[in-house]
Amino acid sequence: MSPPRQDDDLNKNKDEESLLKGEDSTRAKNAGTAGTAASEKSALLSPEYMYSPSPNSTDRPSLTNLTEYGALMADREEGEAPLIQMQVNANNHNLPAANNSTSNNNNIANSFGDDEWPQISKKKCKNELVWILLLLVALFLAITTGLSRWGTGSDAKKESHDPHSDSSSSSASSSATDNNFARPFSLNHPVHDLNLRTVQRPEWSAPNRELFADIQGPLPTNSWYQNLLLATRHEPTEEQRAYPMPYVVDTVGPIPGLRVHHTSMVASDLVLQLTNIPSHGLTLGAASQSMLLSSSATASKKYKVTHMTPLGVTLQWPNNQTTSSLTHSTSIVKGMPYATMAYSIQNDRKLYPTEARLREQAASDHDQDMPTIVSEVPISSPPLLDGQTNLDCKNVQLVQKEMQLQFQGSDYTWLVFVSRPVMVRCMETSSLPGTSFAVQFLLDNDDDDDDDDESSDLIVRMAMGNACTTNPGTCGAQTRRKDPESYMRLLRKHANYYPGPNTAVGFEFETDNDEFNSIQFDWNVQKMRRDDHETEKNATSLLMFALLHHQDMFAASQKAGNKNPQLPSYPHGKGGPKSCATTLLGPACLVEGSTWMLQEKRQRASFRAPRPPRNEDLAVLVDAFRSDLNYSLPLYFQRGAGDTYFSGKMLAKLGRILTIGEELHEICASHDSPKECKGLDVPSPEQPEFQQALARLRSSVEVWINGTADTPFVYDGLATGGWGGVASCGCDFDESQQQCRNQYPDCPGFFNPGLNFGMAFYNDHHFHLGYHIYSAAIVAHFDPQWGRDHFEQVLLLVRDIANPSRDDKSFPLFRNKDWFQGNSWASGIAVSPLNGRNQESSSEAIASYEGVALYGQEMAKAWEDYDQDKVATAKQIGRYGEVLSASELRSADRYYHIIESSREQQFPIQYTPLVIGIMWNTMAQFQTWFGGAAYLAYGIQLLPLTVAAEGRDSLEWSQELYQPFADSCTAHLAPCRDGGWSVLVLAILATVGQQDEAIQKTLELPSSVFTSAGGNGHSLTNTLWYLSTRPKVDDPLVVVDQNNDDGIKQTADLEKNMHPQGDENDVNDQSPQHQGPVVVDLNFNCSCPESCTERALNHFANGHSCGSRILWLMNEKDHNEYDACHQVGVEFSGDCGACDPTQCSSKETAASKSCPPCSTEICGDSKLNQCPLQSAPFLCTEGASKGGCSPSPWVLHDDGICESCCELSPAC
């Protein structure tokens, strides 16, 4: 039975909480749901389950791999009240912006909340009148600025949008986005205006209200710093960490504050893992002297969040009003070379004695918190003050600007900078657990001091200066700097400027005909020192790390002669980047500039490829179209039952069939139609069979958004303990009855994070909703009236994943997008793994934003003759979709797609695959959530096949990819071909120039391929269309039929032709004469079955694969397999060493002994055990890589990288 319509319920009572009837029974019914995930784990990994999707679809990336998820979250306090939406200013907090001489006056107006005003002391009374006057002026400026912003209409030739700028932000320089304004797509409330239903989120997955005490409105759910936002009401754990690049930071150092870690890379042939040694981190925080010297004194490390932007998050300690008068705040910002902590005394009580009194009083009765730096390893030499004086820990001394700290064990040198001269002392702190050495800064807030209000505030910055101070030979190349002294001089030069709490991402859209969309990073630059008299011209000398794709964009702009002043520069001047640091994504290099302007070439969305299908393919295309025109989604999806991922894929599948049919009809109905159209009967969009198919698509799209679905979308609002978003209620699917067992308000999706891939826990929202938006765009294309009638309903889905404006109080900004890194993050709020957020399918992320762009374009046309305001909104949606898709594509091409020629300069050579299967904040893996076979990891980065895929899959990458992809599919022929993944192999085959063969092989596929788990988003029509519209390749890839018995001989002959003349036994040859790689079939493993895999054999070594070199020696030089493998393994040890039979056996045996089977306790630890069993079963259980997964046994290190490990088994 379908649930009642939304409007029937909501007309009775529009209050959200009144719609929660039946909540208690719902919770009781679903109390055991989460626990079922663990019992189903082995079934999820079975082939039958993997390739047979059920409507509730827990076989794709889901959290059912976690054991007893309910127990995992049980430590949240019961009775936790739901987060209530408060109408207060979101920025009732203080982060000292010391000496912002050029701050905007209008920023003062919103410095305090509606009901919160500063406490004015006797000392400050004389300034009260000045404050009042400033506030009045600021209020006037804010009003006039706001009016001028609203006055910029859609008719302006140039639109600039800054969705992230905060009205209370202050900057040391004029920001490029200060005067920008981002129009919301809609201000309609999902419940009160659009009649969406609500559901009460269980307390264990609701936001921690204490954490967001100063924040109003919707909250991020997929941000790069999400682990910090998932802190419970208990003390922070090691999970509360973030990776701002290049540091890893956490909140569990010895004292309240931020612990900062230098990182290094550990690589294997399938995993890249960023590691750090926890005890080598340096904590910047606050502590009392008694806490440092006592073994029993403790202080809460709880923090609260005061600012959140796409580029950073600001934390403050203590998290609430305590006896401490000192607060300290830090903004954790992507690309930060320094960690920055701002300290402020919150009242006029005398906190710290002057230097004279401090010397007089050996034991002061004022034991207050002080700015403190704590190390967990001993210092190796006395702290160096201002490059001249050693700090004697027996005395109190003055530091003017800088302190240098060098530590034993880590061999790290840190530079510390202060905003003003301050007294400092140091001490051994071995009595405090986990600490060894501390430095404290003594603030002075004497009532007799006539200095201004900020005399007692202090800003402390610290940066890693040298990670290999005394023994560079022991450091890896990725850590060792060629010129550490030059690097430290650079840090000193730029230490005065730091990114503030109100960093912002803005956008500049030119006219409709412009070729670029511009992305602006405003770093909200703050000036630390007052006594720095640099000119305003140098006030923009902020130093930040830029990733490789940023550097690519800077170089492209410079090459094009771009004179934009917002283009960052390299601090060394000409010669490009020099001061770089290791990150997971490759080297990040220092640039300077207060704002960055990143130009993305417009990726104009379209339903059609840049060229029509080839004339010779029209007949088979029309046949396929006429057949596929009868396609219908399963009946349960037509009722809105089941999951929102596979239903979305199938909706888009039917939509693509229709748009291709329209294109075919136009080709053959034109006056100059090709001769191949003769005799072809192509149904037009007006014909009954076409209209019937369109009606099926229309109703199947509409049921999900009009409130009549068996499992309706509901709003997860703050009033009901939610985060701010649209999510599926969830369907407890009955296979035998083909329907949901539950009915709203029973919403199992909110109680079981494994259901529907965790959609109600904000997993994969852009994947799910992107397919639905794409399908809605197609319906609007054919039926503009339907588009207008359902505009606001579809906008709910668009706003959920692509909201650009803070004025939209129902959804967070760009839910999944990491604008700095370029890619999106798919994992939501369910768990906080140590490796942070992750995203598997970069290609589906690209397609999701392609859908947003298409929807905007189609709705602009639909509204053209009806509502110009709606036209402007639709065009804005289209532009945001374009820039979202373009930046996602750039990131995928740079970081997910790996090309041999660039591998060494970006990733360690030990990592051999050509793609990243799953990207995490601090780890990258060659695998998927649903299997470890290579074809799955390759394939998940290649679907769906839409127009955007042409820009996604470069020819160079496709030429290298085809061989290992096809080999893996052949090795797993049944699941790859019958499971639908072979469609993507053929797509790459056509991309590299073999269109005829790809089309022929496609026509030979069984029809079941297009209904399988991996293929149900494809259709024969769309596959043939994609193959036929690939651009012409002048030098097609040469392919050897792997099923040919003479394949090895043919390969040997080809390799003989490729091998240059030279020493007859020398395989260390030059570059190949043949253009492009050769596809071969290799049926040997060099007696190293564990390490000499097909990926190892297909790995390229100086122009040829390891396997082809071995074959050449065997066939041309009569070497036996052992000798050929050994010779190649020795001569190309870095690339082919895994196939050296003299090395692999002993290493594997020794390594295997180091990782015994995992214990029952570890198997049951759902926080620790998150490794994919099939592809990376070796779990690191102790050390810096704790929780890390590896396809081969960990090599144990005494230095803490991985100190112990175990091997997971199916029994886990």
From TrEMBL:
Record-linked PANTHER family: ENDO-1,3(4)-BETA-GLUCANASE 1 (PTHR31983), GLUCAN ENDO-1,3-BETA-D-GLUCOSIDASE 2 (PTHR31983:SF0)
Alphabetized UniProt keyword annotations: Carbohydrate metabolism, Cell wall biogenesis/degradation, Glycosidase, Hydrolase, Membrane, Polysaccharide degradation, Transmembrane, Transmembrane helix
Annotated Basic and acidic residues bias: 1-27, 155-165
Domain named Glycosyl hydrolase family 81 C-terminal: residues: 638-1026
Protein name (record): glucan endo-1,3-beta-D-glucosidase
Molecular-function annotations in GO: endo-1,3(4)-beta-glucanase activity; glucan endo-1,3-beta-D-glucosidase activity
Segments of skewed composition (Polar residues): 53-63
EC numbers on record: 3.2.1.39
